[in-house]
Amino acid sequence: MTPAFEKIVFVTGNAGKFSEIKEILASAGIEAIQDNGDYPEIQADDLEPIAAYSAKAAAKYLNIPVMVDDSGLFIQALNGFPGPYSRFVEDHLGNPRVLRLMENETNRAAYFKTVIAFCEPGKEPLTFSGTVEGKIAFEERGDGGFGFDPIFDYNGQTFGELGAEFKNKISHRRRALDKFTEWMKKQ
Length: 187
Ligand code: ITT
Description:
The chain has helices spanning about 15-25, 45-60, 85-90, 95-100, 160-170, 170-185; strands spanning about 5-10, 30-35, 65-75, 110-120, 125-135, 150-155, 155-160. By secondary structure, it is α/β, with parallel strands linked by helices.
């Protein structure tokens, strides 16, 4: 089936994220075009309203349909921290200090979540979410991926070790984008 959108502008300043999105959407026959403009972003305890707000603001500003991805790492022993504050934690603490916070924790359970928001100008944004469960490793491993990938252990190997091709088949981002493409096929 021909996708309703053959090209779509994806608003993100994160090169690692965009490279995964481009790859995943290409497999669904959609070309993603990056816009790294800085549009307003709100703070909230959930990713959905953050992604929805940014998508609506960007769609209004650019006057074209846009997508936004807001993602985070949720660590069970830290009550979901850093979650929606992941960017701040990655920038200001980094992986070594996240590992230090987890030093004496036996409960290593964590999940990544992505919320994709899609918005057409003048319409309300739609959101599609995906998660993947794993564990916080005891040290950084692997130099693939970006952000928290080297400390996110998926069945014994980190996303940093597993590499983009594998990650893109099972990731939180893949699962969220699959929901978007499913929706889009029905349009
Ligand atoms: P944009 O908002 O411009 O898209 P960002 O880097 O601010 O880029 P997020 O708020 O969604 O994106 O990401 C929060 C943090 O989580 C950030 O430091 C990312 O590098 C990291 N992150 C997001 N997705 C990730 C993934 O798949 N693997 C590892 N880290 C990830």
